[in-house]
Write a structure and sequence with these properties.
This protein has five helices and ten strands; from the N terminus they run βαααβββαββββββα. With 224 residues, it is an alpha+beta fold.
C-alpha cells in the first residue's frame, strides 16, 4: 500500500493533482475512499467546514458513483467518473499506465486516501488531467444546438472550434457555458457525475448546411 501523503500540491490555488497506485483493487478502494471523504467533508464529520445535510441529488450521486466504482473492471472505467460536488472544482480521473491520476480540490486533506505526491506540476496540472475546454451554445438551427469554444485552460487540447451534437442530444448549460472533455479523439459532456459521449453530426450534407447557415449574419439565424 502506498505511503499516505497529505501534503496538497499547488498551494497557491484551489486545485491539486495526486496519483493512486497499487493493484487494481487497491485503486478501487482508494476511489471509494475519495467518495467517502467528500461525503464526510460535506456533512462536517471531517474538516473545518460547516455541517450540511446531504440533499437528494447528492445522495443519489454518491450512490451512482459508488455503483460505477464497484462495477468497474479497468482504469478506463474510472476515467468516465466525474465527482461534480467536490468543493470549488470537480474531481476528474485519468489513467497513467497502471496508475490513476486524480485532479481535484486542495481544500480537502484527503487523510483517508493513499495519495502519491506528483513532483512535476508542468506535466500534471489540474487541467491536463481534467482535459476540458469551455464552450457556449452559439446558435440553434433546424433543431441542432451548435457549440462554440470560448477559451481553453493552459494549453491547446486539440478541441474543435465548433461542436455539432446530433439533434435531440441534451447538454446542460449554465451562466458560464459548458465544459466539454476530450479523451483521445472523443468529446464528452459532463452529466450526473459521469462523462457522456457526445454523438456528433456525421452526415456531410447536414453538416455542410449547418456550417453555411452559421456563416450568415447572426441576425438571420432563426430557429426553424
Amino acid at each position: 500500500m502506498a505511503e499516505k501523503i497529505n501534503k496538497m500540491l499547488y498551494p497557491n490555488c484551489s486545485e491539486t493533482v495526486f496519483r493512486l497506485s497499487g493493484d487494481f483493487e487497491n485503486i478501487r478502494t482508494q476511489m471509494f475512499n475519495i467518495v467517502e471523504w467528500t461525503r464526510k467533508e460535506y456533512t462536517g464529520e471531517v474538516g473545518d467546514g460547516e455541517k450540511e445535510k446531504l440533499d437528494v441529488r447528492m445522495v443519489k450521486g454518491i450512490a451512482d458513483i459508488n455503483k460505477k466504482i464497484k462495477e468497474a473492471t479497468s482504469l478506463e472505467d474510472f476515467e468516465q467518473i466525474v465527482i461534480e460536488f467536490t468543493c470549488n472544482y470537480e474531481t476528474f480521473f485519468k489513467k497513467e499506465d497502471d496508475k490513476l491520476l486524480v485532479a481535484t480540490c486542495n481544500n480537502y486533506e484527503w487523510t483517508d486516501v493513499d495519495a502519491e505526491e506528483i513532483y512535476n506540476e508542468d506535466d500534471y496540472s489540474y487541467y491536463d488531467v481534467a482535459g476540458y475546454t469551455h464552450y457556449t451554445k452559439a446558435c440553434k438551427i433546424d433543431g441542432y444546438e451548435i457549440y462554440k469554444m470560448e477559451y481553453q485552460d493552459t494549453k491547446d487540447r486539440g478541441m474543435p472550434e465548433f461542436v455539432f451534437p446530433e439533434k435531440g442530444f441534451k447538454i446542460t448549460n449554465d451562466d458560464y457555458g459548458v465544459k466539454f472533455v476530450v479523451r483521445g479523439d472523443i468529446i464528452f459532456s459532463i452529466s450526473d457525475n459521469h462523462l457522456e459521449k457526445i454523438p456528433q453530426v456525421t452526415d456531410k450534407i447536414i453538416l455542410t448546411k449547418l456550417k453555411l447557415l452559421m456563416n450568415l449574419d447572426s441576425s438571420t439565424l432563426k430557429e426553424k
